[in-house]
Amino acid sequence: MISIPNTLLMLSAMILFNCQDTVQHEIDSPFEYREVYLPELPFDEGHDLYLNSVNRDWGIWGHNLAVVLPKNASQSVYAKAGNSVNRDQFCFSSDALFNYIKSYIDDNFGNEKTIRFAILPNDNSIVCLCDRCVECGNKEGDASGAVYYLLERLTDKYPNHIFFSSYYRTTSHLPDHKLPDNSGVLISAMSYPLNPAHTEQEDEFGALLNEWGKFTKRVYVWDYLNNFDDYFTPFPIFDVVQRRLRLYNKHGVKGVFFNGSGTDFSTFYRLKTHVIAAMLSDPDVEWRPLLRELSSELYPVAGESISKFIIRQEDMVRAKKKNLPMYEGVPKALQTYLPAEQFMELQAELLTLSPLVKDPERTEVQKMYRAMMLTNLELARINGDTLGCERLLEGLERLVAQGIVTYSESGGSINSYISEYRYMLKHAKEVGDKNLLKGVELEPLTALDEEYNDISILTDGLMGLPSNYHCGNMISSASPALRIAIPYVKGMKRLRVSMTKNAIYHIAFPLSVSLSCDGRELGKVVPKPMPNNLQRSVVEFIIPSDCKEGFVLTVVRNQEDRTMALDEIEGLKK
After folding, report:
1. In percent, how much of the chain has pLDDT > 70?
2. Terminus of the chain with fewer CB atoms < 10 Å: N or C?
3. 193/222 Cα distance (integer angstroms)
4. Which tens digits make up the pLDDT trace of 216-236?
5. Strand 551-556 relative to strand 512-517: parallel, antiparallel, unpaired?
6. What local confidence, expressed as pLDDT, does residue 112 receive?
7. Would you kindly state where each structural domain of the chain is located, as residue ranges?
8. For the chain, what percent of residues have pLDDT higher than 90?
9. Rounded to whole angstroms, how far apart are CA atoms 209 and 219?
10. Per-residue burial over 114-153, b = 16 or more CB atoms within 10 Å of its CB, e = otherwise
11. Going by C-beta distance under 8 Å and a sequence separation of 6 or more, which residues neighbour residue 533?
12. How many CB atoms lie within 10 A of CB 193?
């Protein structure tokens, strides 16, 4: 999936674009376009990196074609199927759409300076099937024909500008003829996993780049730098990026956009920007000595500890040869790229060095140290050792006071994380040894989802966080229902089941939850949101005195939603 974070910020920048000069950096590089989409560096630090910017070098970027439309745009610009109009997608053969784009370019950019424009469908599977689009070649699931038609109209009208299509979703078909010289294609690298070792998908992606090279001289790759569900846990990317850039250079790629955390803080973003900028100039640069040098320059006191840890992470990834996850939490990070022991050592070293650190290094080190407290908190939750977590939560609060308020692409709020974590700690303290199922092994009677098959988190004594499905929730797409065998523990009078929902991730409450004993139904409940937390629901069942075994919990999924999430099952004394 092509990800476009901070759309409103980018749109604002585009509208103000005519106040700025476009910068086409000329350096000795195999790539004419080079962007690292991470927080912008101060001018005196970033100006000599010779990087491009979506806010400076594009008139339309990403899936943002709607920026050209006036408030009362003609209905003819939208996709059609029969007599119905769908405003979620465009009709790319529409004369009105062409004229709106033309007016937008004339009013904001003129014709003198060369500007890039992305002519991309909205990020969905809708395709216009009006007579004219069908004549251009559109068919169910494929809008390529009409998109190329509009692209070529624009290249002909504006020979000094460059217009880009995409190889993605409804435009995943190659053209049937060579595209104009002032056009190009943006190819998403989502199908090419982040891995420093050779993969089968690498060969497939290389072949795709070769194919596209037959139709346009401007192949740009839209690539990725982060775990987009967790900007704070250090994410090793240098070996991965270097392998990819060598591949792109080999296959004639002319531009690379590395999608990172955008304007949001992510750990080590300054070092990543500098090192990747050097790789974009020379894909064969030796990055390890460069990293050590830059770390010492940017962080005179803490730099050695930081570079040592980053290299340790990179070595771990290289040894494991596993794909790096782009949408996962700390549990997955531990399996792929996070050496927990070395991470804790880095934290201890930064704390020890803190009295020696002076501004501006002090402020930067404080931010990364406090951001890593989220990782500390997740390690504590995973290990069931929450002693000292309040201090870590206070550290995150100080991070918010420094102006850093989100930790993920979806806008995960640090304040929400803090309040939910505190609720988890409070609940665990209140229940204490009253929960007879804590640590007791449950038995799934239906298959668990491959990525969420740790059923032990349902009896770890810690509730999950509704705002982050990676934190203590067991996700299930079981159809029609998830069934779990629950052992009887002496003295258990009630069974309490907690679940969460999150519309952003298409996680909904179950349709129903029922408990049976030896085939006899003891109760069936339709989950309702809690009055004080609409993202959580709790249901309870009374255990009759004559029921001592054969308990089965049945959780029926709403088939209209992708998944449901259980976060705790408790057996209570009274």
Report:
1. 95
2. C
3. 13
4. 999 999 999 999 999 999 999
5. antiparallel
6. 86
7. 7-314, 315-428, 433-572
8. 90
9. 7
10. ebbbbbbbbbeebbbbbebbeebbbeeebbbbbbbbbbbb
11. 423, 466
12. 17
CB environment 539-574: b (16+ within 10 A), e (fewer): bebebeeebeeebbbbbbbeeebebbbbbbbbbbee
Q: What is the CATH number of domain 433-572?
A: 2.60.120.260
Residue 138 near residue 128 (C-beta atoms within 8 A): yes
Please report, in angstroms and rounded to a whole number, the separation of the first and last CA atoms in the chain. Answer: 49
From its phi and psi, is residue 363 left (phi > 0), alpha (psi between -120 and 50) or beta?
Answer: alpha
Q: Give me 225's structure tokens.
A: 């730098």
Token pair in block for residue 440: 């007791």
C-alpha span between 208 and 356 (Å, rounded) = 52
Structure tokens at 44: 């005196």
Q: Provide CB contacts within 8 A for 401, sequence distance 6+.
A: none
CATH 3.30.70 for domain 7-314:
no
pLDDT along the chain (574 residues), means of 10: 40 39 62 97 89 95 95 95 92 98 97 94 96 96 97 97 96 94 97 96 98 97 97 98 98 98 97 98 97 97 98 97 96 97 96 94 96 97 93 97 96 96 96 95 96 95 95 96 96 96 93 96 96 94 92 95 95 91
**CA distances for 167 relative to 132, 189, 221, 357, angstroms:** 22, 10, 10, 47
Distance CA 499, CA 569 (A): 9
The 10s digit of each residue's pLDDT in 513-543 is: 999 999 999 999 999 999 988 999 999 999 9
CA distance 277 to 281: 7
Q: What are phi and psi of 279, to 5 degrees?
A: -65, -35
Give the pLDDT score at 27.
Answer: 73
Q: What is the pLDDT of residue 430?
A: 95
